[in-house]
Here is the input.
Amino acid sequence: MDYRQEMQRLREELNEHGYRYYVLDAPTIPDYEYDRMLRRLEELERDHPEEVTPDSPTQRVGGAPVSDFPPYVHPVPLESLQDVFDAGEVTEFLEKTGEAVLGAAYSVEPKVDGLSVALEYRDGVFVRGATRGDGRTGEDVTENLRTIRSIPMALPEKLPRLIVRGEVYMPKAVFEDLNRQREVRGEALMANPRNAAAGSLRQLDPKICAQRRLDIAVFNLQLAEGRTFSTHTETLDYLRSQQFKVIPARRMAGAEEINGEIVRLGEAREQFPFEIDGAVVKLDSLSDREILGSTAKCPRWAIAYKYPPERKNSKVLDIVVQVGRTGVLTPKVLVEPVRLAGTTVTTATLHNQDFIDEKDIRIGDTVTIQKAGEIIPEVVEVVRALRPEGTVPYRLPDTCPVCGAPVQRDEDGAAIRCTGAECPAQLLRNITHFASRDAMDIEGMGPAVMEQLIDRELIHSAADLYYLTAEQLESLDRMGKKSAANAVAAIETSKSRGLERLLYALGIRQVGQKAGKILAAHFRSFDALAAATEEELTAIDDIGAITAGYIRQWIGSRQGQHLIGRLKEAGVSMESAARQVDRRFAGMTFVLTGALERFTREEAAALIEERGGKAASSVSKKTTYVVAGENAGSKLRKANELQIPVLTEEDFAALLEGAEAPQGGAQ
Here is the structure.
């Protein structure tokens, strides 16, 4: 077998195994064997790049980041549906369509709460995918859609052209896992799976999109050259045969049966891997659809029944406060068990003190709870008529219920936060951040290792990392003798990262990488910083009063002093490792656009900030330079309009090396 035949065989087998794993959820070979075959194909493609094809499984996460998504005009419009809200409106729709066509039958299917897209295939190979947009023009997100494993790259039947419509979603389990990870990293939590899916699909870097583990449910055949069908359910069967993951649908007739199916889907919504916000009723006959046609906004042959938020009353038994991994105090209400949207609810979020005050929620009240679109049930209102005598307004505590440190309200929001540097509730987040690449950069000490160390009570603060032994690390799961020795060496190496890295690693509020560098360059040692007053801190460029207050509070706290003392004892450097400060770009603002070859976006931004400049995300009159790589888009156009000087990547590299700033205008 020559290399071309082997590559073709591997592509076909890997795509078939991918279909069985990601669509059918019924793998037929071990992961190891799949990975071995994939590696062999990668080797062949590396040796013979001219033989790489678009349907190769290696191309799922290979595209370079883009600066903008180009527009895509849908050959067949992606129409929206008319919403209805009760069984009477469903019956009215059925009566109208039944008068227009005889013997009408319908398809009833769940309405996935995601992001609608079109997938285009040429000769059986996936070539393009786009968001719905306004229904006629969307955004070309082909590279991101390639990362969705359940989208087939090649189809069994090679039609000249095939376009299907589907709903991209983030599975509920993935959404919950993503939010857990974001909480550990101290990032804002995503509101719901739909927003998470939409934001993920519009990431400019396909590799980031791939990490989000999106999925798709295909629900419509838009165009099929060389094929004819008579019903919608027939097209769904065909799409299944082409290895698409297809929405579950049932064919039926009659108002009673259809309304009953809508109710059944609503009651079963917790069983689906995706969020649903309604049920779709469509005429099944494709010829009947042509008879009814469409209005300017939506087809006359389909409706979307939207489920109302389910609400029930329950009694408040208690209000408890949890401390999240970012230190935020979150109140929750404990209620008498109540069945809601398919699950038994015993708790509901109260968000923050402002939320409690606004609704005047008290222990002993009867409250109305709903669960609509969000994962966690929430209190809608208090039933004041049922309030017992003697209840009192509720106030969050002044100290952390976990570690006893004072709490503080954010100046820019309603969150109340624990100020403890060694608070156990924040331990995983704090030490994961401490060891992260941009902080102390301790290789091999990621969240999974940290969780084990905490669970086994081997560490209680970031300082404890420096007292770990190789024997203790060897006892962890998936940590052998060599890995443990490497981890100990990485911990030892991190002691000399310098003050700027340490200040960022400590997690002091509003002290990020940039502030850490500025403070380290100014004070040169932690002791000098610790002795500085708020007035001395605010006299430094880019250090405001709020940041100065957070620094003084952290340094003056009992837990902060204890942590610094133990880090000093362990031999962690408290001195600045920075050389003479380079401020050549002070006062300058750069905007990066297009694909750069010599730098990643993050590397270029870091080089700008190291020289005192600022890397911004959008072009304005305040922009000093725009650095334009390949395929630069709207940012370059705006720079031209505003006459902002544009640098090539070569110009930018020369500027970093000390060359004179180019005086040229826009390109």
Residues 3-59 form a domain with the Helix Hairpins fold (CATH 1.10.287.610). Residues 3-22 form the longest helix (20 residues).
